[in-house]
Amino acid sequence: MIPALLLVAPASRVAVEYDWLFWSLVVVCGGVAVGIAAFVVYSAIHFHRRSENELPPQIKGSLKLEVTWSVVPLIIFLGMFAWGASLYFDIERPPANATEVYIVARQWMWKAQYLDGRREIDELHVPVGRPVKLIMTSQDVIHSFFVPAFRVKQDVLPDRYTTVWFQPSKPGKYHLFCAEYCGAKHSGMIGYIYAMEPREYALWLSQGAAEGSLASTGEKMFHQFGCANCHHFDGQGPCPDLKGLYLRPVLLTTGQTVVADESYIRESIVDPAAKIVAGFTNYMPVFKNVLTEDQLVELLAYIKAIGPAPGTQQPSSAGSVPATYGGQPGISGSGPAGISTDQSRAH
Amino acid sequence: MAQPIVSKKTYALTFGTLLGITALTTLLGFIDMGSLNTVVAVGLAGVKACLIAGFFMHGFYESRTIRIAMIAGVAWFLIMISLTLVDYASRFW
Amino acid sequence: MAEPLALILREQFHAPEQQRETATLGMWIFISTEIMLFGGLFLAFSVYRMYYPQAFIAGSADMNIALGATNTAVLICSSFTMALGVHSAEVGRRKLLNLFLALTMILGAVFLGIKFTEYYLHYLDHRVPGPGFLFPSADPPKAEMFFLLYFIMTGLHALHMFVGEGILFSMILRNRAGSFSAEYHTPVVLAGLYWHFVDVIWVFLFAIFYIEGLHLHKW
Amino acid sequence: MTPVAEAVTVERNYLNQGEGILSWLFTLDHKRIAILYLVSVTMFFFLGGLFALLMRLELLTPRAWLFNPGDYNKMFSMHGIIMVWFFLIPSIPTTLGNFFIPMMIGAKDLAFPKLNLLSWYIFMFGGAVTVFALVRGGVDTGWTFYTPLSTTYLNTYVTATATGVFIAGFSSILTGLNFIATIHRMRAPGMTWFRLPMFIWTHYATSLVLVLATPVLAVTLLMMGVERIFHVGIFDPALGGDPVLFQHMFWFYSHPAVYIMVLPGMAVISEIIPTFSRKPLFGYDFVAYASMAIAVIGFLVWGHHMFVAGLSIYSAMAFSFLSYLVAVPSAIKVFNWSATLYKGSISWDTPMLYAIGFLGLFTIGGMTGLFLAALGIDVHVTDTYFVIAHFHYIMVGGTVMAFLGGIHYFWPKITGRLYPEGLARLSALIVFVGFNLTFFPQFVLGYLGMPRRYAAYPTEFQMLNVLSTAGASILGVGYIFPLCYLLWSWKYGKKAGPNPWRGTGLEWTTASPPPRDNFEVSPIVEGPPYDFGRMREELHLG
Questions:
Q1: What pTM was computed for the model?
Q2: Domain D28-535, CATH 3.40.30.10 — does that match?
Q3: What is the pLDDT of residues A123-160, one digit of tens each?
Q4: Which of A33, A125, D65, D236 has the smallest CB count inside 10 Å?
Q5: Contact status, residue A161 vs residue A128, Cβ threshold 8 Å
Q6: What ipTM does the predicted assembly reach?
Q7: How many helices (H) and strands (E) does chain A have?
Q8: C87 and B44: CB-CB below 8 Å?
Q9: Domains of chain C by range and CATH?
Q10: How far apart are the C-alpha atoms of B46 and A88, rounded to whole Å?
Q11: Which pLDDT band, with edges at 50, 70 and 90, does C121 fall under?
C-alpha cells in the first residue's frame, strides 16, 4: 500500500492543495467516526444486560444535546463546503496564460493536438512549472479526462468544449484514465502524461516534425471552406469581422451579450443560426456533420490566433508560451475568470 | 352525504370563466408581446388549472391533508424545473 | 336506498367516511405522481425552449390554432359535464349520472377525433420527426425537436384520455348495475378527479404548443 | 391436557388460513404479499450477488483474464440494475414495511390491498422482462443508462432492460401510494402522529420519495427509449439534444432513490435499538423530523453527481451547499441512536449486532459522503472506487445490514419460530468482517485513482483488489448462512411466543404468527411508543 500511495503523490500545484483538504477531512471525519464507534462499543459492553428483567432509566431525550449536535456539525460542514468550493474554483478556472492543447476523445483513444500542429495519441507531453489548459471535446460518447496525480478530472462531452488545467510540479510519467464509462473498451482508454523539465520540453518540441501549426492548417481551411469570402478582416464584409474575436463580449440580436469563448465560436461554426451577432443577418451554411472535430479544432485555433482588434489588446505573458503562430491572443477584461489573480498566481 | 360538496351554480360559473379565459388566451396570443407571450400564456393556463383543481376537483373544499397532497406534486415539479434551469441559465455566466 | 353498509364497506375500513377519504387521498397522491411524470416532459420542453427559442416559436406558429382552441373548449365542456355527473351522483340521481357520464365520454371522443385529425394533417405536412421530416425554416433539426416533444407530450396525454374513456365506460356499466347511490359513489368522484387532471394537463399543453407562437402564425 | 385443549393451541393464523399455491397468488393479505416479496427480492439479491462475485473474480488480476471487457461491462451493469431496482429499493419497504406497517398502527390491512397485490405482479413482470433481457444477451450500459452511449452506440438489450425497470417503477409508485394513504387514514384509535413507532415515520418519508421521484425515472426512460427506437434526438447531441439533461433527470430520481434505499434501513434500526436497549428512542421528535427533512432536502441535491459532468460552476456550488444540509439530519439520527444505547440494558442478540454494525458502517458511509459533497475533493475521487466504496457502505453496510437485522428481529413474528442464535451471531460477524475487507480497500483504491467500471487496471492496484476479492468471498459465505438456518428454523425452530424480545409495539401484542386480521381485538392506543416502563407493572402483576 505504501508504494502505491507514493505513486499518486501530488504532482501538480492543485494536487498539493487538494491533499491538504483531503487529509484534513480524513482527520476530522475519521476522528468523529472513531469517537462514535468507541462510544457505541463502550455502551454495548458497559451497559450489557445483567438480568432478564432489568429496566434501565427511561431517558427520553435532551433538547440541549439535540441543538448541539445539529448546530456543531452544520458549522463544520459549512467550513468543509467553503474550503471545497474554493479549491473547486482553482481547479475549474484556468489561468489566462496557460499553454493550450486541444484534446479530441473518441472510443477508445485520446488525441492531443498542440498549437504547433504536433499530434499525439494516448500521450501528452507537458512542461513542468507552467499551467497547461486542455480544450476538450468528444467525437462520440461522453468520456472523462482523469489524471490522478494532478487531482483533476473533467467529463469530455460531444458537441461542446470543456476545459481542464493543471500545472505539473514534478517531472515524471503519470497515468491518464478515462473515468466515464464509454463502452466496451472503456478500461483500455488509458494513456500517459509526461511532465518534463522546461529544457527537455523545449528539446522535445523542437524535434517535432509538424506539418505546420494548428492555426496555419486552420487558415488554409478558412479559405478552402469559403469562410474568407464573407468574413473580411476590414470590417467591411457582410459577416462579422473575426479579428480579435476570442474572449471579446459579443452583442447578439436577442439583446444578450455573450463572451466569445471556444464553445461560442464552435457553436457559431456548426450551428450559425443559434446566436446571431447584432446588426447582421445569418447567411452562413450549417457546418454540423460537415467538419470533423479535428478540423473544427484547427479552425478554432486559427480564429483565436487572428490578431486582436486594435485597442482591446492586453499584454499577455507571451514569453512563457511556446512560440506558435500568433502567440497568445489578447485578452479582453471581460473574461469570466478572475484573470488578474490567476496571472499573479501563475508566476 | 346528503349535501353535494359544490353547487351547480358554482360549477356553471367556473365553466363560463374557463371558456372566457380560453378565448382571452387565444386572442392575446395573436398580439406580439415579445417574451411576454409565453408568460401570459402559461400564466393564464395556471389560472385555469387553479379553477379546475379548486372547484371541479373540490380542492377548495377538501381536508388539509388532501390539499397538501395536491400542492406537493406541483411544488416538487417546481423544485425540479427551477434547479435544473438554474444550471442552464448560469452556464454562460 | 342502495346496498346495506356491509356490502360497500371493505373489510380493512371501519367507517364509510374513512373509506371515502382514504380513496380520495390515494387518488390525489396518484395525481401528484402524474404531475411528476408529465413534469419531466415539461422540463425537457423548457430546456430546449431555452436552447432553441426561435425554432420553438416557429414550430408553435405552425400549429392549427382553430383545431387546438376547439379542442380546449371541448375538453373544458367535458370537464363541466363530468362535474355535473359527480353532482348527480352526490344527490343520488342515477339516470342523470348516466347521461352526464355518456356526454363526457362523447366529448372525450370528439377531442380524440380532432387530435388524431391534427396528427394526420401533421403527417401530410411531413411534420413527423424522423427521416421524412420537413420544415420550411432555416433550422429543421431544431423544429424537429419541437415536434418530437409535441408528439410525445400530446401522445402521452391522448393515452391518458383513452384510459379515461375506459374508466368512464366502466362507471356507466357499474351505474347501470346499480352500484352507486347518494351514500356510495366514491369511484365516480375518483374518475372525475382523473378526468379533470387530464384536462389540466391539456390546458398547459395548449398554452405552450399553440399559443406561444400564435402571433407569427401564417394564414 | 385434554385433546380439545391441544387442538386449540393450533391457532388459525395468516399462514394456515387458506392453502395451496393459488391462495398465495391471489391473496390480498398484506402479510402474505410481504412473504411473496421476500421470496422475490431474495432471489434477485442472490442473482445480483452472483454478478458481484464474478466481477470480483475478474478483478483478481490486472488483465482481463476471465471475461472479455465487454462481458465484464455486462456484469457490472446487470449487478447494478438488479441490485438497485429489484433488491435495494423494494427490499425493506415491500417485505418488512408491507408486513408491519398495518400491524404497528393497529390496522387490519393496508388501505388498498388489491393495489398491493397488483404492485407485486407489476414488480414480477418488470423483473421478468429484465431477466429476459439478461438471458437474451444482457445489457452493458451501466445502471445509469447514460446517453448518448445507451441510445446510439450500444447494440445490447438496452430497450428491453429499460422497459423492465420502467415497469418495476410503477410497482414502487403503487407501494408508496398505499403506504401514505394507510399511514394517514388507517391508524388505530389513539394512535396519534407522535405515538407512531419510528418505523412508520421513516416509511412515510420513504413513500413520499417513492411517489414523487419514481415518475421522473419513468419519463426519463421513456424519452431514452423513444430516442433509441426511433433515432430522433432528445439527449444525443448529434441529433440536437443535450446529454446533461438526461443526467439531470436521471439523478433527480436516482439521488432521492438513495434515500428510498436507506431510509427503510433507518426505520428498522430505530426499532431494534430501543428494543434491545430497553429504552425509548432518544430524541424521538428530532429523529422523526430528521426523517422528513432527509426526504425533502434529498430532492435538492442531485447535482452533486454531476460536478465534473459539465454543470455550471455556480449551480455546482448550490448543489454542494445543499448536500451538506442534507448531511445534518443524517448526523442527528446517528447521534440519537448512539445516545439511546447510553445507560440502556443492552443485549447482544443478533438483531442488535446487525444494528451496531449498521451504526458503524453507515457512519463511515456518511462521512465519506462529506468528502464527495466537497466540490474540490469530488473532482478527483468521483467515478473512482472511492465512490463505489462510499455507496456500498451506505447500501450494503447500511441497507443490507438493516435488512438482515430486521429479518432476524421480525422473524419470530413472521414465522412464529426462533432461529439458532449462536449460528446467527456468527454469521453477523462474518458479514461484518467480510464487508469491511471487501470495501475498505476500495476507498484507498479510489484515492489512488482507480476508475470504476474497469475490467483491466494498472498492476500497482492489484494488491488492494486481491484483498477486496478475498473479502467478497467471505461476505458471500456470510449471506448464504442466514438463508440456510432461517429456512431450517421456519420448520424446526423453537416456538417463539408473541413477544420474544419484549418489544413495545402493537405488533408484539398479537400472536406469532399473527391471525389473518392481525389482532383478535382492534387495539386502542393509550400511550407513547417505546414505553418500556410498562414492564415494571407487568412484572408486579406477574
A1: 0.91
A2: no
A3: 999 999 999 999 999 999 999 999 999 999 999 999 88
A4: D65
A5: no
A6: 0.91
A7: 9, 12
A8: no
A9: 11-216 (1.20.120.80)
A10: 40
A11: very high
